[in-house]
């Protein structure tokens, strides 16, 4: 009986660890032609300001360079134009 309980506990912990690994998986940021202000951080694209920064996509501005990479589509950027609505 104790062996079964220990086995179930180990299986449960292994499942939680593997699930949390997927949540923390990094997304690749691909180079883009979207230019930014040179301040490190993420922002939603706005084609009315810069046609290369596509609406509905999230970008990461590189500090000091003015170049941004593209993380891809983000629901909040599509819905309200912000990182979170």
List keywords for this structure.
85 residues, 33% helix, 26% strand, four-stranded antiparallel β-sheet, 2 helices
Structure description:
Mean pLDDT is 79; it is low at 3-24. Strands 1-4-3-2 form a 4-stranded antiparallel beta sheet. With 85 residues, the chain is an alpha+beta fold. It has a domain at 30-80. Helix content is 33%, strand content 26%. It is globular and about 30 Å long. It has helices spanning 2-23, 75-80, and strands at 30-35, 41-44, 57-61, 67-73. Strand 3 and strand 4 (67-73) form a beta hairpin.
Number of helices: 2
The low-pLDDT segments are 3-24
Report the principal-axis shape: globular
Helix percentage: 25-40%
Largest sheet: 4 strands, antiparallel
SS elements, strand count: 4
Assembly state (oligomeric): single chain
Distance between the termini: 50 Å
Question: Taking all residues together, what is the mean pLDDT?
Answer: 79
Give the percentage of residues in beta strands. 25-35%
Going across the biggest sheet, name each strand in turn: 1-4-3-2
Radius of gyration: 20 Å
Layout of helices and strands:
Blueprint: H1 2-23, E1 30-35, E2 41-44, E3 57-61, E4 67-73, H2 75-80
Concise description?
The chain is of the alpha+beta class. It is built from 2 helices and 4 strands. The chain has a domain at about 30-80.
């Amino acid at each position: 009986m104790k062996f079964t309980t220990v086995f179930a506990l180990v299986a449960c912990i292994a499942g939680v660890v593997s699930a949390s690994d997927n949540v923390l998986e990094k997304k690749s940021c691909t180079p883009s032609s979207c230019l930014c202000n040179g301040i490190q951080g993420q922002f939603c694209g706005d084609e009315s300001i810069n046609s290369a920064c596509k609406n509905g996509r999230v970008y990461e501005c590189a500090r000091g360079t003015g170049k941004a990479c593209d993380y891809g589509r983000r629901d909040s950027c599509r819905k309200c134009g912000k990182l979170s609505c």
